[in-house]
Specification:
Distance between the termini: 28 Å
Shape: globular
Helix content: 10-25%
Strand content: 15-25%
Radius of gyration: 18 Å
Number of helices: 5
Oligomer: single chain
Length: 194
Amino acid sequence: MAATLDRHEQIILFLNRRGYAKFVSCRQCGYVIKCEHCDVPYNFHKYKHQLLCHYCGKSIPMVDSCPSCGSKHIREFGVGTQKVQSMISDLFPEAKVLRMDYDTTTGKHGHQEVLDSFEAHEADILLGTQMVAKGHHFDNVTLVGVLAADMSLYTNDFRASERTFQLLPQVIGRSGRGSKQGQAVIQTYSPDHY
């Protein structure tokens, strides 16, 4: 990434999980905070400091103690686009990062505004979910990074392998579409997966 940024070329990073963290859990008793309607763990959204159900949209304020045992040892687990954006800003403070996920593209033209800004080189890195994977042609993108590919490869769906296989070539194909050579890096614990 540093070499790509030094050459003033652009980067697309793909992570198939929005939010800051996948769930919030108590380190004392193991309690996981779940949506009362859907019975699925809330996702933590740091910038709004809230817990959000990605199924029904219900949100509640982030808690500072465990609702089950009262412990103060409660925090988020996992990683989402918000957390990665924060990490990138720490590692590359000079780089401008645009995030493209459901949370940043609401509104009538939200999706197109992010793409237009990136196309106009107003950002060095475009970080996003499946929205960044399909059909975009940016001449200056020479690096695509797929972060934590195992998160989509090992979901509890028998079609997960096939869906991951369909997504990876699409997002990798965003690199090197112009006159410059492109490169892709896939982060996985399963490089030999069929």
